[in-house]
Amino acid sequence: MKMMSGETMGESKKKISCRRLGGYLRQQKGRLYIIRRCVVMLVCWHD
User: Fold this and answer.
1) Whole-structure pTM over 0.90, yes or no?
2) Domain coordinates of the chain in residue numbers?
3) What distance in Å separates the CA atoms of residue 31 and residue 33, rounded to the nearest whole number?
4) pLDDT average per 10 residues of sequence, the chain (47 residues)
C-alpha cells in the first residue's frame, strides 16, 4: 500500500471541498430562484 504525500492529500481534500461548496451554492441558488418567483407571483397576483 502506497503512502500519499501531504501535497497530494491536500489537493484531493481541496477538490472534495470545492465540489461540496459548489453543490451547496447550486442548491441555495435554486432555493432563492423559487422564493423569488413565489414573491413575484404573490405581489403581481390580482384577484
Assistant:
1) no
2) 1-47
3) 5
4) 52 70 94 96 84
